[in-house]
């Protein structure tokens, strides 16, 4: 991935912010920047946010902000979020404060947001607008984020001259997605974990693979905090991104195999797994507009599909192929099948296999409450039931027969393991002689006797092979 970029300009055609009527000049355009319609729609998801600026605020690109008193408005995406130090001085009346690092396409600034009770529901990746009256140059005095040295303090509940608002409207979806200093050091996850983390401003691009449920954990000092573990991958390695405390609500709308994260300068811990964490210098660009993100998304999609614990039966693909298929009634051996799939990887073909089941896991899976399974949010779901609720997104997910129910099939030429097969619901019913509902309800002794009856029996399978599916699709089971 490193060094493939011809030039940064070729990726990012010049675009002006839709909030402005003219490109940025050294003096900012006066005005709020929003039409009244935009203001109305941006309020929808924020509930009671009815703040309107009482006077004119100039909208600035972040890199053109200057320290000092000024009524300013900036729009940027949150790239980091952390609680202020417990020892930090709070303004009168504040219960707490968080630091937001926000970034537009020109620079980054740190916002100290003090609050008494309002939960802003802020997450990394969100687009926000901030209205403030003073910009501090963070180079002086104690400063929490050295990579975004402009410091803006807001306490909207107390000071009506400042405000922060989430811009959730889909029309802003592409705004501020250009990474800063992107061309510098994009490295692979593997290189990053093997010494690359020492490089200043090291950047890795990863795809979200799984999202854990949020857990309460007790820290060394006895206090508790929330933790979410996000599985991430690129084409070289995998890691866990841990999101703590105020950042732990961030992955709520991230999608496994879809959401891309460009992470700059995370901390690395390789004690037993590869753990990435945020420091105050870390930036996370969610779904950055860079071509590598699209390429990696495609790669991750294939990998995640292949490793899925219960690959979906490719109904539509098979139907499409079936319409124009040649008439083939060929009996293959497992070795022939393997040869043909390797020699002509693009070939899609159908045929029959005559195999013997030599391993079945029905009883043990029943005992482990794993007869049926599926995945949601990249997390496996198992149960002896047709549905299960995902612990992360709380959605009911339909389960299918666990493919590991068949352990191993052999013929005279070779063997195939259950993980390489995808059976249709129809094929499962034919194979087991019972529907999935009947399978779930069967007693342990019934399943034991079914197992005995099926083991070492020769069966004929009708199969379809397509490299796109990457597994052997079983469409029918014949005695
Ligand atoms: Zn889910």
Automatic annotation (TrEMBL):
Residues 1-38 are annotated as: Disordered. Residues 1-29 have a biased composition (Polar residues). PANTHER family: CELL DIVISION CONTROL PROTEIN 24 OB DOMAIN-CONTAINING PROTEIN-RELATED. This is Uncharacterized protein. It comes from Aureobasidium pullulans.
């Amino acid at each position: 991935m490193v060094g493939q970029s011809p030039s940064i300009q070729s990726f990012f055609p010049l675009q002006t912010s839709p909030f402005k009527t003219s490109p940025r000049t050294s003096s900012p355009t006066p005005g709020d920047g929003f039409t009244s319609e935009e203001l109305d729609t941006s309020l929808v998801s924020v509930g009671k946010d009815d703040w309107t600026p009482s006077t004119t605020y100039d909208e600035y690109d972040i890199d053109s902000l200057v320290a000092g008193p000024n009524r300013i408005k900036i729009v940027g995406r949150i790239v980091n979020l952390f609680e202020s130090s417990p020892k930090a001085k709070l303004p009168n009346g504040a219960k707490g404060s968080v630091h937001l690092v926000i970034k537009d396409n020109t620079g980054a600034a740190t916002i100290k947001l003090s609050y008494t009770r309002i939960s802003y529901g802020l997450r990394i990746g969100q687009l926000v607008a901030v209205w403030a009256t003073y910009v501090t140059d963070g180079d002086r005095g104690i400063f929490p984020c050295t990579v975004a040295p402009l410091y803006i303090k807001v306490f909207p509940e107390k000071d009506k001259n400042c405000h922060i608002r989430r811009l959730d409207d889909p029309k802003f979806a592409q705004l501020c997605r250009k990474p800063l200093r992107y061309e510098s050091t994009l490295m692979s996850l593997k290189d990053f974990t093997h010494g690359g983390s020492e490089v200043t401003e090291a950047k890795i691009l990863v795809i979200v693979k799984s999202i854990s449920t949020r857990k309460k954990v007790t820290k060394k000092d006895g206090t508790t905090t929330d933790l979410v573990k996000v599985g991430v991958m690129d084409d070289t390695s995998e890691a866990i991104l841990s999101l703590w405390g105020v950042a732990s609500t961030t992955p709520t709308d991230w999608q496994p195999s879809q959401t891309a994260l460009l992470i700059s300068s995370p901390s690395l811990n390789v004690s037993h797994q590869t753990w990435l964490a945020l420091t105050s210098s870390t930036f996370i660009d969610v779904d950055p507009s860079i071509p590598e993100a699209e390429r990696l998304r495609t790669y991750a999609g294939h990998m995640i599909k292949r490793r899925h614990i219960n690959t979906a039966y490719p109904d539509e693909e098979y139907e499409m192929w079936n319409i124009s298929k040649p008439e083939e009634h060929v009996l293959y051996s497992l070795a022939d099948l393997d040869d043909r799939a390797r020699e002509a990887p693009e070939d899609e073909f159908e045929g029959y296999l005559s195999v013997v089941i030599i391993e079945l896991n029905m009883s043990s899976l029943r005992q482990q409450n794993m007869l049926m399974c599926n995945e949601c949010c990249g997390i496996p779901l198992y149960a002896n039931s047709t549905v299960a609720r995902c612990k992360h997104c709380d959605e009911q997910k339909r389960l299918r027969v666990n493919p590991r129910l068949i352990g191993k099939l052999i013929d005279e030429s070779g063997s195939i393991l259950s993980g390489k097969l995808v059976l249709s619901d129809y094929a499962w019913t034919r194979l087991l002689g019972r529907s999935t509902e009947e399978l779930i309800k069967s007693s342990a002794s019934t399943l034991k006797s079914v197992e005995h009856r099926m083991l070492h029996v020769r069966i004929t399978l009708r199969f379809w092979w397509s490299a796109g599916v990457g597994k052997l699709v079983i469409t029918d089971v014949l005695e």
